[in-house]
Write a structure and sequence with these properties.
Radius of gyration: 16 Å
Strand order of the largest sheet: 2-3-1-4-5
Strand content: 5-15%
Bound molecules: shikimate-3-phosphate
Structural class: alpha/beta
Number of helices: 8
Order of helices and strands: EHEHHHEHEHHEH
Helix content: 40-55%
Length: 175
């Protein structure tokens, strides 16, 4: 019997490089990418900033949860998770059931450099985004570290990170 290929699930803070790595993995492995943020935008027919502004974060999290459950039903996909997906323990457990979860880490300084020119992230649209990054990272660290593997992305080329993930999946017979 042919076994279902596990998904590659990418989690991590905003600006940790999930989307870049997801697209590289897709090219390398020929697997489709499912971006939870893009699926939310398609389902809601409005940008994430508008969902936060008009309906609030808790509404966003409800939609996100529905989308995560949908994505986790697939196999052999690369699932690029929004930075807050891990806040709901049920999201983590269902994603881990059908996938191998990789936490992409980066220092707060590096994250700040990567996201400072992007204004589309409502949670960082504050007076002091640098302090917000540190605060949220500290709060979320216990959730992110529930991933199966942790990969430091600081000062690393995306291709190198991609190969690290491919090697793990190959060793498991899941690539
Ligand atoms: C969020 C991260 C964003 C997006 C939303 C909330 C978060 O995704 O889902 O703005 O709570 O960290 P990215 O991590 O892809 O930027």
């Amino acid at each position: 019997m042919v076994k279902d290929l596990k998904n590659i699930v990418l989690v991590g803070f905003m600006g940790s490089g999930k989307s870049t790595i997801a697209n590289l993995l897709a090219k390398e492995l020929g697997h489709p990418v499912m971006s939870t943020d893009e699926m939310i935008v398609r389902a809601e027919k409005r940008p994430i900033a508008d969902i936060f502004r008009d309906s609030g974060e808790s509404y966003f999290r409800q939609v996100e949860k529905r989308i995560v459950l949908e994505a986790a039903k697939r196999s052999g996909c690369i699932i690029d998770c929004g930075g807050g997906v891990v806040l709901d323990p049920e999201n983590i457990s269902c994603l881990k059931l059908t996938g191998i979860m990789f936490y992409l880490t980066a220092t707060p300084q590096e994250i700040f450099q990567r996201v400072k020119s992007h204004s589309h992230r409502p949670l960082l649209n504050t007076e002091n985004p640098r302090a917000m990054i540190e605060e949220l990272l500290a709060k979320r660290s216990p959730f992110y570290t529930q991933a199966d593997f942790q990969i430091d992305t600081t000062a690393k080329k995306p291709q190198v990170i991609c190969q690290e993930i491919v090697r793990v999946m190959e060793a498991r017979g899941d690539a």
